[in-house]
């Protein structure tokens, strides 16, 4: 899953990220299909996707997605924090196919805006857990003996 994510474009990665968050990984947007929206393109101001937590869009989470092999550093997180301020947002999710530097993690722990960092391994785990972009090949049922069945009445 993680290797495949390195091959997809950022718009698809953003769409995938919004879908994972909407479907239940984080429960954002409920069951509405229109809760997640991809907006990222050249000149997007640092925002790749939006998730509306309610129908009116009063509470919005902004997404930044990076398809990188190297860890994302503090400067990229600072740019995203600035983009959030530019739209008066206080919540964002920064998703990457790689990881984050310790400086990036430290930075998000000290700012007022709530930015959640999701690395490639976490995203892949969420995809598998919620069947987004994956399909089951086989499943197994493990059974145990039901001792109540053998108890005399």
UniProtKB/TrEMBL annotation:
The keyword Lipoprotein does not apply. Transmembrane segments: none annotated. GO terms for biological process: DNA restriction-modification system. It comes from the Bacteria. This is Restriction endonuclease. It comes from Leptothoe spongobia TAU-MAC 1115. GO terms for molecular function: DNA binding; restriction endodeoxyribonuclease activity. Residues 25-127 form the Restriction endonuclease type IV Mrr domain. InterPro entries: Restrct_endonuc-II-like, Restrct_endonuc_IV_Mrr, tRNA_endonuc-like_dom_sf, Type_IV_Methyl-Rstrct_Enzyme. Keywords: Endonuclease, Hydrolase, Nuclease. The keyword Acyltransferase does not apply. PANTHER family: MRR RESTRICTION SYSTEM PROTEIN, TYPE IV METHYL-DIRECTED RESTRICTION ENZYME ECOKMRR.
